[in-house]
Every structure is written in C-alpha cells, then in structure tokens.
Amino acid sequence: MSYRFNLPKRFYFSLLLVLLVIIYACEQTDDEIFKITIRLISGVFFLCCIFSALKLRNKKEEPYKNILNTIWNIETAFVFIYAISLIYNNIIHGTEPVKNFTSWASSHPLSFVLLTHVLGLVAIARAAFSFTDIFKNSILKLHETKTEIEPPVTRSQTDTNS
Description:
The mean pLDDT is 82. The protein has helices spanning 9-26, 32-57, 62-93, 100-107, 109-133, 136-145, 157-161. The protein has one domain. Helix 1 packs antiparallel against helix 2 and helix 2 crosses helix 5. It has seven helices and no strands.
C-alpha cells in the first residue's frame, strides 16, 4: 500500500514518527507561542518532505536541492566571514568588536525578521530534502514497479471487416 502520493509506507511512518517526537517535545513547555511556532515549523517540514518526495519520485529534485544548497552555502560563507572579521578586530586591534550586524538588525527590524524567516525556511527545506533522501531507493523502486494502466485498444471499422 502506498497511500495517495504513491510513496512507501516506511516514508509516511518515519515522517509521522519524527513529527510526533517533535510535537511531544514541544508540549513539555508552557510557552504557548513556542508551541505554535514548533507546530508551524513541523507543518512546513511535513509539506517540504512531501514536495521533496514527489520531486524525487519524478527524478526532478536536483535543481531544488542545488538551489537550497547554494543559498545555504552563501549564508554560511557570510556568517563565517563576519565571525572571522570580529575575531581579527579583537586580536589585532585589541578592542571590543564592532557589531555591525547587530546595529543593522536593530535599525531594520522588519528586514531582519524577513531574512531570518527565509533562512529558517531554507534550513527546514534542506532538512526535508535530506530526510527524503534516506528513502530515495524505496521511493524510486516503488515508482518504477507501479503498473501503468494502458488505454483500451479501439479497433477501427476497417479492422473489424477483415
């Protein structure tokens, strides 16, 4: 049985198990905003996993993975360069590092919030694609063994007269 999206049962079971563990862990706190946030993140993770599995099934997941990895690598490079510049300023000049990003974030809160949400979504989508890659062989195998329904053969009038 492969349910509606023609994906393996193990994929659904594992995804459900991961989501239940996440939701159980977030239920251990009393902070309602945190609970809502975790539920939203879990929902986005679920949708990204289904999207990733469907693209993987059709063998069209590579462009999406490459785009997410490129965004992630650029973000990581910026963070690394910023951290190294703070360390160098402290070592070379012996002064407290100037926190340019912190001052920018406090003066542009909307841009900062949007940027952090986009980068958070990239991280969640990357995690979903990685989760789906665990089931790559079974997803492709199930899709290849799926029997295609052939349309009925209609005979023309000349074929029946022969």
